[in-house]
Amino acid sequence: MKIVSAKAEYIRYQSRMVRDGEGHSHPGKPHEAKVGFLTIVCDDGTEGHAVDGNMLVDVLNRVVAPAIIGEDPFMHEHIWQRMRTWQRLHSDFTDRTLCALDLALWDICGKKCGVPVYKLLGGYKDKVPAYGSIMVGDDIKGGLDTPEAYAEFAKKLVAKGYKAIKLHTWMPPIIPNPDPKLDVKACQMVRDAVGPDIALMLDPYHDYTREQALYIADALYELGFLWMEEPMDEHSMSSYVWLNSHTRLPICGPETVEGKNRTRADWIAAGASDIGRAGTEVTGGITSVMKSAHLYESFGMNIELHGNTIGNLHVLGAIPNGEYFERGLLHPLLDYETPKPWFKSIYDPMDENGFVSIPSVPGLGWDFDYDYIKDNIVV
Ligand code: LLH
Ligand code: MG
After folding, report:
1. Minimum-distance ligand 1 atom for the alpha carbon of 206
2. Distance, CA of 312 to chain centre
3. Which residues contact 378 (CB under 8 A, 6 or more apart)?
4. In a domain, 364, yes or no
5. Least enclosed by CB within 10 Å: which of 39, 41, 82, 365?
6. Ligand 1 centroid, distance to 149 Cα (angstroms)
7. Is residue 365 part of a domain?
8. What is the pLDDT of residue 379?
9. 297 neighbors 101 (Cβ within 8 angstroms)
10. Could you tell me if 129 and 33 lie in one domain?
11. Are residues 82 and 101 in the same domain?
12. What pLDDT, in 10s, does the model give residues 359-369?
């Protein structure tokens, strides 16, 4: 079996999400946006896809496509390793772009074998509990503008079936200066609103000092939080070693720092976190997240996956040491349950007990609306 073509395109759609200066998402006025769509075709007609707002279409067409045509998609690790090393001097070849290639290859392999990807990866469970991941705080009336607003929204999430909730709190530029006391107040009010039986986590401003991060961590320990993630710049691993040795609250990470599974190995060796973290988009696809997951398992650690990607769902279905699916980002003024226009249905519907099933059809299980995609390609 050989790859005969690979093509990435942008699809236009109406978005209600805007990004602030630091890149955090918030609800906003409808406007035209575009999402990347990758198609890899094999000589027997099998097609694999990836869709993501952050893949770089130009890099996929210019760098990746010529390199993989003629390759066997089942020599997946070989292709991934080769492309990983190409990232060094192709500085625009991001992990999110590598992720797109990786997902499309896994999609092909699953379809060809007639099994969902999580079974190809090993197969461990067919559903996972979700946590409601609340969007970064804002200054929108009826949105996430006060600790009270978080508490109200958290109660609504519990009523929908969520048994776990993560807060992202306020960050510049929404507030001029980070405010650890405001974070703790929001966490306190959410704990009071949902009671002791709902698992809670916090992902606050990502650039606190050590002392600010420790102040929040100790307060969250008293509130019975499950973990805190990324309260400081992750490039300073020694700051995380310091934080982790000073607090009893479990620290989860790293999330965004570069280096894929190898960075995770260094954090484990240094004792920089209690719970590991990786995600298909930020660490170069399923292939890398599986390496991290097995590494953490070998050290007796759990891994919590970043983001609501279909790739993360398949990894969770394949490993014993990942507990939750991050469902979101959620916001009182946004509807998470309606599929994006390029999908006919969402891949992560949640049942009344707070569980999401791993897609069970061959491949990754995206339910694409191919007519919408065809009609909205940006030329
Ligand atoms: O800073 C943000 O906007 C969020 O932290 C975002 O990156 C979110 O995806 C996240 O970190 N989830 O865990
Ligand atoms: Mg995070």
Report:
1. 1
2. 7
3. 9, 10, 11, 12, 34
4. no
5. 82
6. 19
7. no
8. 87
9. no
10. no
11. yes
12. 999 999 999 99
